[in-house]
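Note to self: keep these together.
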Amino acid sequence: MRSLLSALILLMTISLAAQTGFPDIDQAIAEGEYRTAQDLMASRIAEGGLEETTAYQLQLQSALLDRIKLDFSRDEAYIRETLGAYFPNLTDAQLQAWEESGELEMRVIEGKKRYFRNAVWNLFRVNAEAKARKEEVDGPGSQTLDSFLQVYLPRAVEAVKGEDAPIARPRTLKLTYTLRVKPDAVPHGEMVRAWLPYPRPSRDRLAAPQLLNASEPHYIISPLSYPHTSIYMEKPALAGEWTEFQYEVSYTAYDHWQDLRNAKVEPYDTSSMLYQYYTQERAQHIRFTPEVQQLAQDIVGNEQDPVQKAWLIYQWIGENIPWASALEYSTMPNIPAYCIENQRGDCGMKALLFITLCRYVGIPAKWQSGWFLYPVSKNLHDWSELYFEGLGWVPVDPDFNLQAIEDHPEAQRFFFGGADAYRLIVNDDFSGDFFPAKVHPRSETVDFQRGEVEWRGGNLYFNQWRYNMEVEFVEE
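Structure:
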């Protein structure tokens, strides 16, 4: 069953640029005629005679088109009005230049310009002129989290230095997670199945969580042999009412830090299963494309030391890939390729690019993700781990990268070998199986931080439900 589900997940993530085997469908998609493409797919399925996997692929392609339309939900009037506050004399030529450069993300769908929902704000992040203009109009943005880390990280480093192990300063957090399905998203009486993200014990960094309460009397917490850690619940939908799932949990986490820049590591056992598995390509987002190979060579050159190679890649991402809001991962055929081509990415995109580059140059690397839950800020977050002989797995966050802490170089590079106690771990890999098994395609084909929901009639996408994380800091 698990191998079948993995195959279906792989089908779910097939690129829209790939050929479906039906030239008229491919042409309609390429021309942005999504309704036509979806009608053609429905007709091919209704006619019958297709291989089961072909019919399933067409259903998934149709779902991906719906997701793209949700992502590209802004029209030109919105874009011009929003940009007008910063560029009152905005010209057609300037707008077109941003579109053609990809800095203002746009697609023609159904014959009309449709812009990514966060296209304007991403423009301010990736275009130097636009960024400067926004700061001129709005003033400098909030630096609340930066200020918090500038105080917190030096203390974390010094505390770890005083310990025999690379952990210190336990923090106990209590979480209340709620997932609510919209009224009538599922017919009355039909069973709603929900997987909610759940804290994952991870070596010394996060201790075993204690479940305090669950809204449903029967629930299943996934085994740690599964990479996505969830608590599963189900209940029937009631007409006109929200379907709510909730749990409360407490756990203790630690600041973890190792000074990789000065660490002594041993040569890799390149024949080991661990080394071979975590340095290999993996469909669909870890591919050693010619662009990845060239970039890795440009960054690393003739360097042989694994820590130094990782450090060079880490610095390059910090200097060249600014954070920007991302398209839904399920609609992206190769995330690192997008990141390289567009010179931007959110935390998960940067993590996948970092992992891919590290693997290509012979450093075992893997995915880890969940949330950051700082007292001043909380959000979904992705990062990576690297394996070094003699040290084991070490957290590295290419998105947080170097911090503005000039008088404490170790704290400045804290996230190259460190993770603070406010990092909630949920996943220890990406695009894995769920327990219990999910029958229908996932909403998020790579990560798992918000949750997943379905009923026997199909998957419930993110626009059909809401989620909320409440955090209480029990001990400081």
